[in-house]
Amino acid sequence: MFSSCSLGLETAQVETAIATTSTTTSTSTADSPIYRRIISKFSFSNLFSNSNSNSNSNSNSFNTFNTLNSLNNENLIKFYKTLSRNGIPKHLRREIWLKISGANVLMNKNIGVYHHFLSLKCDAEDKIHLDLNRTFPKHPFFKPTATGQKSLLNVLKAFAVFNPEIEYCQGMNFIVAILILYLEEEEAFWVLIQLVKQYDFYDLYANGFPGLEKKLREFDLLFERYLPDIYNHFYDKGVLTNMFASKWFLTLFACRCTADVTTRIFDWFIFKGWKAIYNIALVVLLYFKDQLLSCNFEDILQLLEQAPSQVPCENLLLTGIIVKNLSSTFVPNSTNNSTNNSIINLTNNSIIN
Fold first, then answer.
1. What is the pTM for the complete model shown?
2. Rounded CA gap, 345 and 353, in Å?
């Protein structure tokens, strides 16, 4: 869908620079050489100002949006593509997620809509409450005494009322949790709507999970093509893809990875869509290839239960031989201009163009 070139750098150069800087713990993301090269290409050093500076945060956000908006679509895609797999600097994540998803424009065209749905009775509230304590329980933001659980509940309630066909499905809690780590409640609500509309989440969470079955079939074809040894071993042992990959896909690996790692995964996913998730799943299997080929049915499933959390983050995100060859049909239609012209029809809770 998009050109593979990135800021005039060859892919191998970019990945080499990323791999080198990712192992240097004393250098912040925004100060690493690869980001300095990005700055020199686009000439907007203010975008990479220190996020810990004492300058007004609203002013920083305004400047960031102005700078991103000054880029034409092609340059924005190139800029974001270079950042996505190595992790977006924290102080840019909010603005980039909103812009790439199209949620910022949709939210501005629908002032007050989030609070309208939040004020209505939610039939799924009890179901949502059950999953609050299960969502990143070790993360301080989601402790019962912190504010994260309340925000998580609010966004999920508003969405359940807005979209009664999906209402609430287990797995959504992890997705929204990642969003509210960096976004306000209303912003997270609109990004979630964009995920449903532009990234195939509607069918993923719909009754009967038809989208999940489709994703598993697509992944199965890639699994057989790129990792035939493991695929055939699983076939011989009776291990089906849905036995281990369903939770991975429904939560974008959040059910098995830490919030920090899942955030990095989402950075990549919001640009590349399901290509990123399929790539990560294949990398997990490849990482444990020797162990998997020596395991029986029970041991395979037991190993894969925690496998994503045991693969180093840089291995998950920077092993990209497979993803380059995937079909563009797995890429989200996140640049569809009709999304940005959408207004909510409060009569039937639908998005109209």
1. 0.72
2. 10
